[in-house]
Amino acid sequence: MIATNVRRLGLYLILSFAVVSGSIVWWQVVQAQALATRGDNPEVIAARRSLLRGTIFDASGQVLARSQVVEGLSTRTYADPAFTHVIGYSSFRFGSTGVERAFEDLLVGQSDPNPIRQLVNDVLDRQPQPRDLTLTIDRRLQDFAAAQLGSNRGAVVAIDPTSGAVLALVSTPTFDANPISGDPDVAQEPMDALREDSAQPLLSRARQGQYVPGSILKVFTAAAALDAGAITPETTFPDQPRQETEGFVVDGFTIREHDLGGLQPDLWALSEGLQVSSNIYFAHVGLDLGADAFLAAARRLGMCASLEIGPPDRALSVTPSYVTQPVEGDCGPFSGDVELASASFGQGSTLVTPVQMALLAAAIAGDGVMPHPYLVSDVRAHSETDAPADEVLQRFSSRGGTRVISTEAARQVRSAMVDAVNGELGRPYAGQGDVTLYGISNARSAGKTGTAQLGGEQAPHSWFIGFAPAGEEASAAIAVAVLVESGGSGSTNAAPIAGQVMAEYLRLAAGE
Amino acid sequence: MRIAWRGVELRLLLPTLLLVPLGFIVTHVALSGAFEPGPLELALGYVALFVGAHLVLVAFGHRGDQLLLPAVGAMGAVGLVMLNRLPQDLAGTSAFDVELGMAATQLLWFGVGIVAMLAIAIGLRDHGILRHYKYSWAAIGILLLAATLLFGYEVNGARLWIDLGPVSVQPGEFLKIVLVVFLAGYLAETRTLLTSARLRIGFLSIPPLPYFLPMLVLFGAVMLIAVRLNDLGTALLFFGIFLTMLFVATGRRSYVLIGLLLFVAGSFVAYQLFAHVQARVDVWLDPFADPLGAGFQPVRAIYAFGRGGIFGEGLGQGLVTLGGSLTIPFVHTDFIFTAVAEELGLLGAFAVLGFAAVLVFRGLRIAALARDDFGALLVVGLTASLGLQTLIIVGGNTKLIPLTGITLPFVSYGGSSVLASFVMVGLLLAVSHRSAIGTDAEPQP
Question: Is residue B166 reached through a cis peptide bond, with omega within 30 degrees of 0 on the bond before it?
């Protein structure tokens, strides 16, 4: 009796041993290959720890990040916290972010920019050779922009409208990447402190921050309506002067003008409408344009989906910007005319990133062609010194751009934006964005302020987008977007920062 | 007392014992890069221990099973080679001004264990006397655990052995033997009642509760304390032993089924109630969700299995270190099987599992041949303990089941575990000896 039961028990035990054996086979045979290449595999981490990483230089050849291998441990030093939100960090404990992540394989030399050499290396099983990178950003401009933001939370994005080269990409507050990338055993504490910091220093505001745009989006509304032929620069709306004081009733909801100060309402066309930043005027423009055309134009300009700062395949992603309530990552439909009218002057459900707004400015500056942004200009052989090597292995240059609005429409918007900075009506609002105030005599700026109302007691976000030079004679060299979180009106806070950053860039460009 | 040659045992023992010096040499060459034999005292000491044990059994005319010692010797060989390969400061002893590394300490415990095994195998000529004191055993068991529960670390039972080494003795290791002895005694007496009593509701046979009561009370107390001590592995092991013995005693699948249902229900309740249980199950289901945090242990183990592949990385050539420490956590205790699988590959892992299987199936054979119910149930319980312990910890290493911290018998580092396992093998030898002399020649009146 017991002997019989023991035999039955034996069968169950054989089964159990077989199942356990199967689980070993699963990891050691079936999954072995897949496990070997995973990034959190300690073997991969250990190999990476001893690998020399390439140096990252700024556009002028200054060292921003470099590594040294000391006693088998590769240690990385970051020179400038103003670049943390561009370069990111390469941490043994937390992985890598930013350019460090996007260019990981090149920096450690696991891949070669030249496919034939890559093949030879693979065949010969050669040791990886680290590569150096050069950014399109000049440290002087980046530091200058960061200093302008100071202790404010915000972002400055500057792009060359012709090439798409990123000239500055600043997010504040920033943080020191050195303790996080250093000794993995002590990296946790500084990281925890950053994670708990209410100022959210880990957030790359320029790329990942989503903000209500306020009046800067009127540039988009104007461009879209002109492009679609819904308005001309001369278009006026007869009811507008009256509605400036009485309000504009849409679907039973009254849209009101912002405080015009002592200004008397008048029958305004595009230039005046943009100069005084009339909500009523742009509500009319948006309603005339219509919801479908509004959304189509937004998508053409890169909104409603995530963007990339190239080069392609090694891009830094940019959080999507939305003009309506998002649905599954895309802009949803407008709920009605009230939302459309509100979106037309940058309220409603609009949420945008500073990078997207800089691209909007660049598209206007570039006669309707929106550039593809990129921020690494070349890959070089590794240099042992503080100067970049001469041997350039791969060069990234402009990939042109995408035509998003007609040349004519872009020029009409540009003219209105020049007026917004320089015109009699516009000066009180956007005048601080004028580069001539900051020592530049031979160029003018175009621009638009934004004061994004957040509702409640919160101070509005302060915005400015613009470009310079903005005259007919020279093409624009720099397009910017400046955001100061809860910085009050665009004219007092963001506009002077933008004006100074543009002026500084023109000065640097002239000096070289 | 007549000499009884044990040829099978010797022929199997010698090649397995050879594994140790060979393994030591390979490890030394791989780690130092020099082609010289390296320190072999420990390896030779190990060989001497088992050959000595064999000779003692021969000298005393022991007729017990001849495959047990080679299986134990092989498991211990793999364990000692691996422990010798690991950094020696992971564990160890410093007493009487003697500093012993981890492998040396383990060898010391093997010595103690083998002496205990021989004493039981030879001294316990009639295992039947154990059953007469079954309630005393139960009381000892409860006292043992209650002491642990009340006094915690400070008076952790065997802290008396501090002179032999700073070993935190796990009372659970010895408690399971006590529990098996009690259950074997109780079930041997009541199994007829438990089997014949019929109380049916629908298709389920309801156990006749009164006969179950003493057993359930003890068992419940033990489980409660084990859970209270947060020793889930031991609790699971006890439960498995209990169900296995109950099944063999009664042959009733329904009892096992009810037990399993209770276990599932209990697990569900525990999952809902206790955060640490929840965390452990979540980590088990998806360790890669947080590979550097909560999922750290299983993830590191899984990668080690992957690195090993079929043939392994070779002794002394695997085991990645990060920042100077080994990536496999608890590599000398809970995860030693993972280390074996990495350096000796699937083949090495299967070998260890195979040795354990030999031990288990010889145990079952001894049970089937036992001349009395108590002896059979005792052996079944001990065998189940060794086998389930192996399955639970190996399954935990491979993420087949949630990880619980118990040792792999004869392979993991740990004095209590080694000693308790040898005591169990000693009991198996004693019972099989009695069967052997019983079948060959009836004892003279």
Answer: no
